[in-house]
Amino acid sequence: MLRWLIVTLTETVGLALLLFAAGVSAADWQSLSDGERRILQRFEERWPDLSEAQQQKLLNGARRWAAMTPEQRQRAQEQYRKWQDLPPERRKKLREAYRRFKALPPEQRARILKARKKFRQLSPEQRRWLREQWRRRRLSNED
Hints:
This protein is mainly α. The protein contains 7 helices and no strands. It has helices spanning about 1-20, 35-40, 50-65, 70-85, 90-105, 105-120, 125-140. α1 (about 1-20) packs across α5 and α1 crosses α6 (about 105-120). The protein starts with a helix and ends with a helix.
């Protein structure tokens, strides 16, 4: 589960870039700031066809993007490219795993995130060892 969470959280950063947000109706494209329109320019032609909820997500994402440092933007772009390179079935599984994670009680999500942070602080050798232990345990539970 920890490995799943690590992969899911990392890869969903790229997905978040697609979920930029917009809180205005389709007729209000011109009411967006110049910066927001620049970030969302690839959506301009489709803007009137997007639901208000989709527009809101896009605008919120554009605002987050504008607030990022260049390093954060580069990392987000790299994560998005990794996401795009995944097979559709893998992306589908990751989306479902993320939905399950978000449905967990806040305390359980916090425990998982804390464990993830601890895991990331381990040396590569320790992480490999734990992954192998997890794999073996999963295999023995399948029998």
